[in-house]
Structures are given as C-alpha cells and as structure tokens.
Specification:
81 residues; two-stranded parallel sheet; 4 strands; globular
Length: 81
Amino acid sequence: VFSHDEGMKEVRDIFEGEPDAALNLRLDPGQAIGKSFGVEALPATILTVRGRQIARFAGVRDWNARAMRDLLRKLIDEDRN
C-alpha cells in the first residue's frame, strides 16, 4: 500500500490509529509510484501479484465487504493457475 500523504500522522488520522503491519504501507508523497502506474485520480487501487498487475479499481471501495474479499481471492487464485 502506498500513501500520497506527506507523513505518517495523516495516515494514522485516516486509519484512526496505526495501519495494520500486513499492509506494508509506504509513503509516496511525490506520487512517483502512482505516476509510474498511471494513476490519475485518487483513491486508486492496483492489485499486483508477483509484480504483475492483475486488477485495477478506481474510487472508494468497501474492502471489508464479503463480495470484495471474494473477488480479490478469486483474482489471486486465477493468477496462480
């Protein structure tokens, strides 16, 4: 996960505390990573598996929704085959 915020204070405000370590969150305040992926608007989510893009989502998503979790599992499983 990359954040375009300038510092971790802004990130902690959004997450209402420390983000889960499993997110492996990194700051990208200059948006270099986002630009390299062609991100033009936020929020944007790019799912990569072993360095290869397998899905792209524009806009806000409910990542805790069962349907979204099922979709992500399906995409990852399909990429493994």
